[in-house]
Amino acid sequence: MNKKYRKTIIAGNWKMNLLPSDVKPFTEELRSLLPKAKTCEVALLVPYTHISALRRAMKDNRISVGAQDVSVHDKGAYTGEISADMLADLGASYVIVGHSECRQYHGDSDFTVGAKAAAVLEKEMSPIICVGETLEQRERGLTMEYITYQVLAALSFVPEGKERSIVIAYEPIWAIGTGKTATKEEAQEVCEGIRGVVREKFGARVARSISILYGGSMNPKNAAELLSMPDIDGGLIGGASLKPRDFAQIIDAVAQVTGEEQK
């Protein structure tokens, strides 16, 4: 599957870290470390409270801004919820839906994830739909059965004509924040399988245009080998995205891999 048909995306998920006042010094340091040539789409997915500060800090649009979750509701008596319309008005381009932590701590079901993805798409943003298996599911040989269901459940909510706007992130739950990482072969196998599910649902043209990210402890040491895989189109980065130098090195890995492909 030729990568020229889709974007490479390096997306940093800050989770519940840093403060709005940390945004400016962070982006100033990161900007000084970024390669001069744009080799990929770079996004920072930050707490709602940080979005406006990040937008101000990145007026040159070298980094896209995104959120970490969204409500399924448009508006109304839903205290504490944030709608897709609110995020779009703040200038968000991406929104994570279905992160394993939201599934675990907030009770998001596969169908809730699909509804959130649809809400994001309706406001002309791109949902980053997270899917992944537990260690027990992997050890029992159920990885693709489980992930296929997660992907199909989410895709069933995607409105016609919006298919190319989705991004899917494979985040093996057993590798998030643990320091463990799937081998490049394990990650490629699942990402290739996910693309196959998209192909069966929407056809080959859509499947080749959708970016599939790896989201299980990608770091400066393993980024290049993971990104060299044919169906891994970027990374959803956790801890390393909180350190400008580490995050910049992962972005640099894209250029490294691209250069190798061109040789």
Structure description:
The protein starts with 8 loop residues before the first strand and ends with a helix. α2 links the parallel β2 and β3 (64-67). With 263 residues, it is of the alpha/beta class. The protein has helices spanning 23-33, 51-57, 84-90, 100-106, 110-122, 135-139, 143-155, 184-202, 204-209, 223-227, 244-262, and strands at 9-13, 41-46, 64-67, 94-97, 126-131, 167-170, 211-214, 234-237. The model has no long low-confidence stretch (mean pLDDT 94). The chain is 43% helix and 14% strand.
- List SSEs in N-to-C order: EHEHEHEHHEHHEHHEHEH
Give the overall pLDDT as a whole number. Answer: 94
Q: Any idea what the radius of gyration is?
A: 17 Å
Portion of residues in beta strands equals: 5-15%
* Quaternary structure: single chain
Query: What is the architecture at the second tier of CATH?
Result: Alpha-Beta Barrel
Q: Report, as a whole number of angstroms, the end-to-end distance.
A: 18 Å
Q: How many DSSP E strands?
A: 8
Shape: globular
How many domains, in number, for the residues? 1
Lateral strand order in the biggest sheet: 7-6-5-4-3-2-1-8
CATH superfamily grouping: Aldolase class I
Helical coverage, percent range: 40-55%
CATH class: Alpha Beta
Q: Per CATH, what is the topology?
A: TIM Barrel
